[in-house]
Design a protein that fits this description.
Order of helices and strands: EEEEEEEEEEEEEHE
Number of strands: 14
Strand order of the largest sheet: 4-5-13-6-12-11-10
CATH class: Mainly Beta
Shape: globular
Number of helices: 1
Helix content: under 10%
Radius of gyration: 16 Å
Length: 150
């Protein structure tokens, strides 16, 4: 099947998948595949922006990678790419730091941009938005955990 540039050889994802963010020390985190969201978002707290010794802005933050569990904390840092206004699911606008980091999903590794925000009350610690999925994957919203790395 090949309609409007869609190739049948693209991997198919379910509405939720396990992903890895090795650059942040997150080997396995459950992500909601959210084609309604433009950007991807990661649950982060204690977010602080500093400058490293060469003057580059760096974001340091902590993550609770396990859904509904605050006993495990991973601390990470990454260069700041941008700050962007993002409208959350409840309609509020929030200025969020943006980082770029490698993502591993369906046996593929590629860089994505992530906004950092508190997602304590949300079901998923991570949303994978459509910019990260474009031209790489198809999504079957009736299925879950289709990635071969599960």
């Amino acid at each position: 099947m090949n309609t409007k540039g869609v190739q049948a050889t693209k991997p198919v994802l379910g509405w939720r998948e396990w992903v890895s963010l090795p650059g942040l020390g997150l080997n396995r985190i459950k992500a909601k595949i959210d084609t309604g969201a433009r950007t991807s978002a990661l649950h982060a707290f204690d977010v602080r922006t500093t400058r490293d010794e060469s003057g580059i802005e760096v974001v340091r933050f902590s993550v609770h990678p396990i859904q509904r569990d605050t006993s495990v904390t991973v601390t990470a840092s990454s260069p700041l790419v941008d700050r962007r206004w993002v409208r959350s699911s409840d309609g509020r606008r929030q200025l969020r730091p943006v980082i770029r980091t490698p993502l591993v999903l369906a046996d593929e590794s590629f860089d994505i941009e992530l906004t950092l925000t508190t997602r304590d009350l949300m079901s998923f610690r991570m949303l994978l938005g459509r910019q990260s999925l474009r031209r790489r994957f198809l999504v079957d919203p009736q299925r879950s955990y289709l990635s071969p790395t599960n």
